[in-house]
Amino acid sequence: MNVGGSGGDDEVVSAINTTPLVDVMLVLLIIFLITIPVATHTVKVKLPVDHNQPTHTKPGNVVLAITADGQTYWNTTPLRSREELLNRLVEAARQTPQPQIQIRGDGAAKYMAVGQAVAACQEAGISHIDFITEQPHDAN
């Protein structure tokens, strides 16, 4: 170890001093550990629990099928307009007990077509709407 200046061998140290980098990283780590829990839980809400239950189709249930091009079917009968859909839904809402409305939307259907069917159900006073989906296929 050369302490004095009389040695004669002046070597240049080419190693990077990483101490300031480590200090900055530790400070950033502490800041993130403190702020992340506050940022993710700002408003307390109780999230719904997923109940994936198979739907049982009963004879009185109504199946609304929505194709990829937006055509709506009442069971197997094509509907010409939103008013026709709404009239049928109002008649179904008056029945006791009220039938379940099961919506089968094509995967390529636009959200607007499905949303309009749900809005028509709400407008008619339908209290139970189901969405029919398929089980995912195994990738194996």
UniProtKB/TrEMBL annotation:
InterPro entries: ExbD (IPR003400). Keywords: Cell inner membrane, Cell membrane, Membrane, Protein transport, Transmembrane, Transmembrane helix, Transport. It comes from the Bacteria. The chain crosses the membrane at residues 20-39. It is a single-pass type II membrane protein. Gene3D superfamilies: 3.30.420.270. It is found in: Cell inner membrane; Cell membrane. Its main location: membrane. Belongs to the ExbD/TolR family. Involved in the TonB-dependent energy-dependent transport of various receptor-bound substrates. The accessory proteins ExbB and ExbD seem to form a complex with TonB. This is ExbD/TolR proton channel family protein. It comes from Saccharibacter floricola DSM 15669. The lineage of its organism: Bacteria, Pseudomonadati, Pseudomonadota, Alphaproteobacteria, Acetobacterales.
